[in-house]
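Batch 3, record 17
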Amino acid sequence: MIVKLTRVEVQSRQDLEMIDITEHIERAVAESGVRDGLAWAMTAHTSAGLLVTEGIECLERDVLAHLERLAPKQPPEGSYGYWHNRYLDFDGRLGFNAGDHLKSILGGVNCLFPVENGKLVRGSRQKAYFVEYDGPLARTVFIQVLGNE
Amino acid sequence: MIVKLTRVEVQSRQDLEMIDITEHIERAVAESGVRDGLAWAMTAHTSAGLLVTEGIECLERDVLAHLERLAPKQPPEGSYGYWHNRYLDFDGRLGFNAGDHLKSILGGVNCLFPVENGKLVRGSRQKAYFVEYDGPLARTVFIQVLGNE
Amino acid sequence: MIVKLTRVEVQSRQDLEMIDITEHIERAVAESGVRDGLAWAMTAHTSAGLLVTEGIECLERDVLAHLERLAPKQPPEGSYGYWHNRYLDFDGRLGFNAGDHLKSILGGVNCLFPVENGKLVRGSRQKAYFVEYDGPLARTVFIQVLGNE
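Prediction for the assembled complex:
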């Protein structure tokens, strides 16, 4: 079995941003030499995510606005505050991004696709997105391809 | 390694509907010849999902009602509208299902199970569901089984 | 290909609790003999989950509080009740944990990591958590490692 692990650097430019990484995954598949198998990716970060949805700009904005509504950067009024938003000894700074970790959990941190005849199998509208919840930052995505030659 | 990819057609009959696909995955495992490995499935669509939960009708209704509450078809009052709900050039029609894409992201789009001794391994109450958020429609589910003979 | 499936018992002590299982997954990788491949885990239960986030106690509390806010044990006021919260013939008792099944769906039920040179690959802050939504209970986690020697 071929097993190929690739680390891809992604540079986010905004606080909240969806970055289409479908081509990165397709390139990893092409370079792996795998004919039939599995390709999957995950974020290396806990205030970022990976998800699959339709690749259109208006929907990208809805996804970000919606996750911010469900897991806001400021604790929801009339509810608890965030415990994470306090001084963190090990970090030497204030915690501030509890809502971004929560978005990462809700939206998910990985995606998977079958590989068939050397090609990524996906629905005609499906795109793989890296989702930045706490940018701008330089980020790493792990892409792994496993399968038969 | 055996790698088998199956495309299963699922016909939803309602706008929101949970369809138990556990047997489809178990059949794919039986037909694959895999003794020890991995079986996983994903939706080919961005306004549908896949998830694992207990297989009882009352809970199916709660899951659908709950996801509609968190990601409603109509934009939540007193908040932003949906950007996706506008005229889409490439589609030649109005976008209308932003909330359904959002449900798909929240509920997830795939499920995975180990295969052991030729059988799907799952908790006694776990069922795999295809979840329709924008039906009725004819839908495709990818099921892949990878492993040793 | 090596395929190793391990069942790990986890004992939760509270109703809602996050239990770091990263070491269990790392041990399964070490004992599998896999050098390059995939390690993944899933809960065997429908009122518990698995997720990846930063491993700090304040954030654990935020995750639990937040999922309880999004999918509360008591049906949200001014909205529908839970259909699952009724007498269940097959169980001989009242359904009571609809909100906990919903938390499981929102937070997710599995996690995946690459294995490289015999080590689990993860971001420097990423930890794998078993999440109890309906404890205290004795629980099972499936951990599978697949790959080349």
